[in-house]
Specification:
Length: 198
């Protein structure tokens, strides 16, 4: 009797494992199929410009899944020194197999920064952008429903101060005006101090 119970328990465990196996295989296959890619433009993530100038990164994003929609949900960056950062991301929604790209420009892209005028020559800001997204069963704007969070993407970046603002030359106009004012003042003071003619 003890052997029969032991055999039945072992058989029950095997049946439970076999019943769970297709579900586990299905989940792992689904997870493997749910993939996407992202990259900065330029491809190495490095940009540079003069102190005081505005720079930006573009992006390339592809939904590699054959059935699910990719909905981008967030972008953030590490901290910046000597610069003011700006998110320029449009949060694209991509159907199965679709891709979207945006070159770095003044208004659109992934992220931008404006170097402070006092940024030192050769200074480098470097870190990572974090992109987050979700998987949906269809277009979220046309009845699709949330499936799961997508794996986050980390994209490395760097930005370098390549030159400084030119030092403005003193304008000749204020010097000329000061010289004329001094001449006028001296001319007037001579008139006031000159002895009266008889």
């Amino acid at each position: 009797m003890h052997n029969v119970l032991h055999t039945m328990r072992g058989l029950g465990r095997r049946v439970a494992l076999l019943a769970a196996l297709p579900a586990a295989l299905l989940l792992s296959a689904g997870a493997a199929a749910q993939s996407w890619s992202a990259a900065t433009t330029p491809a190495n993530g490095h940009i540079g410009g003069r102190a005081g100038s505005a720079l930006s990164w573009g992006y390339e994003i592809a939904n590699l899944d054959a059935a699910l929609w990719l909905v981008t949900t967030g972008v953030s960056a590490d901290t910046f020194q000597y610069a003011t950062p700006t998110s320029m991301f449009r949060f694209p929604i991509l159907g199965p197999g679709q891709a979207d790209s945006m070159p770095a420009s003044g208004a659109f892209g992934l992220y931008g920064l404006t170097w402070h005028a006092n940024a030192p020559l050769g200074y480098v800001n470097q870190g990572s952008f974090l992109l987050t997204a979700e998987w949906w069963s269809g277009d979220p704007l046309a009845g699709g429903s949330y499936v799961s969070a997508a794996d986050s993407m980390w994209l490395d970046y760097s930005a370098t101060v390549t030159s400084l603002l030119p030092v403005p030359e003193p304008s000749a106009a204020p010097l000329l005006l000061a010289g004329l004012a001094l001449l006028g003042w001296r001319h007037r003071s001579r008139k006031c101090t000159a002895p009266a003619r008889r």
